[in-house]
Amino acid sequence: MVLSQTEIRDRSCDSFSRNQDKYPNCGIPFHSGLLNSPGTCGVARRPQQDKTDTEVITSSISRKITARFSRLLNSRWTSEQHEAANKDAVGRRGEDIAARWLWVQGCRVLYRNYRGPDGGEVDIVCRHGKVLAFVEVKTRTSTAFGRPAQAVTLEKQSLILRGASAWLRLLGCPDIAWRYDVVEVLLIPGCKPQVNWIQAAFNTDELARGLTRRRRNRM
What we know:
Blueprint lengths: L4 H15 L33 H17 L1 H4 L4 H6 L2 H18 L3 E8 L5 E8 L2 E10 L13 H17 L6 E10 L7 E9 L1 H15 L1
Parallel strand pairs: 3-4
Antiparallel strand pairs: 1-2, 2-3, 4-5
């Protein structure tokens, strides 16, 4: 399903207002250029304002409490879950954990499982400070075959790049910094989820060089 510009904005705002810390402008500064476009997102149209010191402290406390007591982040992966879960279930669990963990780290999760019109895809779109991050989540129940991030192949990077490009086009190609991250989630029986956040895991120049090398090797 391909979403319109307004639908993406409204869904992002609705998700943020329900699940995050109720910041008046939804915490999506780079959407400011879209606020005058047609749509029904009342939350997005509220006056933008900076957080007060009290709001900052409250948000920080909320994140610390979540990190300490969230069942999603602290429940041990049981042998029963390990045996019953299929690949899709493990992947969904990992994405839920990654989204919650990124929020605890101070990110604003804007959208999950975005699919672009040209086949591109991004697991999580979030803001980390002033940087827009397109995040790929890789979940494994073992490291027997290497780290999860090793599964982010050139082909997968190309899909992420296309998805990110489609997202930016919907926003009118804003003048903001962005990067491509990978979040590794390990679900080992008997252990709490292990999360590793790799910021700037790859970039477009590296991807272009990798694809060029591959084409040359095939000649």
